[in-house]
Write a structure and sequence with these properties.
Layout lengths: L11 E2 L8 E2 L5 H24 L6 H49 L1
Antiparallel strand pairs: 1-2
């Protein structure tokens, strides 16, 4: 959750899985409690609806599963890039050391 520096934590009501956080920053003080209560009711309704779905159609088995796959793929891509960078550095060092040897042999 990225929030601006001027937003107080109590002005943000956390969401749940498929429900986004509720930002009450610019809401009148009198309405904040009512809106927060409605947000919590919406979350409870969401949980009830999810429990009625077959497991293969639930949020955690669709969207969250895909997010996890993307996260795993991203980590593997970073690892491959690190390995590729290390390999390229070793090649460059080897090439440069060979160039130095050739240069010294020519001038000797």
């Amino acid at each position: 959750m990225n929030k601006p520096n001027n937003v107080r934590v109590k002005d943000i009501v956390e969401g749940y899985k498929g429900i986004m956080d509720l930002d009450l920053t610019h809401v009148q003080e009198g309405l904040k409690k009512q809106m927060a209560d409605q947000h919590m009711k919406d979350i409870d309704d969401y949980k009830t609806e999810q429990s009625k779905l077959s497991p293969r159609l639930r949020y955690e088995n669709t969207i969250e599963r895909i997010r996890k796959l993307h996260q795993i793929d991203e980590e593997k891509q970073k690892k491959r890039a690190e390995i590729q960078t290390e390999t390229q550095i070793k090649r460059n060092e080897l090439y440069n050391s060979c160039q130095n040897c050739i240069t010294y042999n020519i001038h000797d």
